[in-house]
Amino acid sequence: MLIVPEREIANLMTREAAFDAVEGVFAAMASKDAYNFPVIREAIGHEDALYGFKGGFDKAGMALGLKAGGYWPNNLEKRGLINHQSTVFLFDPDTGMVKAMVGGNLLTALRTAAASSVSIKHLARKDAKVMGMVGAGHQATFQLRAALEQRQFEKVIGWNYHPEMLPNIEKIANEAGVPFEAVELEGMTEADVVISITSTFAPTIMAKHIAPGTHIACMGTDTKGKQEVEAALLAHTTVFTDEVAQSISIGEAQHAVGSGLIAATDVHELGAVINGTHAGRTSDDEITLFDGTGVGLQDLAVAASVVDLAVKQGVALDVDF
Ligand code: NAD
Question: Which atom of ligand 1 is nearest to the CA of 201?
């Protein structure tokens, strides 16, 4: 069995490799070559932890396995460890034998950022110039760094519920050589692309905050009850997602579908756009919305990619198991 420890991931994995892995697996999902298994997520009654498994099988990429992990809210304060902890296990689809164990913490941020980037590549207007950020936490920095590579952005505007966190994303914009400006939510209408990546349970982005022609990637809602954007906004947008079943149950579309504003059939797979079986954006005035819920196959795809890189660079530990 090959082991790629968490400490090696930053040196191995690139945003480009994560992007290619995620784009490939979204395409495979839409062509039914890959599917996700039902997600398990449990409050284990210890340390207030949420623990679970996200798995799947990608027949096109021959990736079989799962990500095990979750959220330990006391880690940072009590132990100086990060609160989100995960590990990916890959198995040989021909034999069922375990192939690799891979640190999943940094990979999760990279694969989540790659998902919104893939949506920007395929759905945002080509002439997009202003990048809008709603959210300035841990994931937001990865999201912005990856998004800025998708278009010739000339400015980043940002709003956050906790304004003291905005320097986190200002730093990323500056590192990319793009000016940053803090705005009120009303100012988001200037953005051509908006990423929302917050943990809110009450919507902050209203329909009036999003201008015609915008592409919005809603990346924070990954649980029942969370909501970043007003449900009515979805009725005026063309809605895409990584996986329809997750989008309508734990993603942003859960609210619009639940209240009858849109039907489940109004939610389309981003993979279909990648494969050319859905037209994607059809006009410059259309608002496109990507509901990125985060699927196990994304984790397997980036883990498989990093294992290849680790083997090539001779840093994978090979254990007789
Ligand atoms: P974080 O704790 O570092 O940041 C949280 C962000 O949410 C901050 O910007 C904070 O200001 C904002 N926020 C908190 N309460 C708010 C409120 N009431 N109203 C508006 N904004 C509020 O968290 P993170 O690691 O950056 O994760 C952000 C979200 O992304 C979480 O909901 C997490 O579950 C989700 N996530 C999704 C995926 C996916 O694949 N879609 C992957 C990883 C994380």
Answer: 18
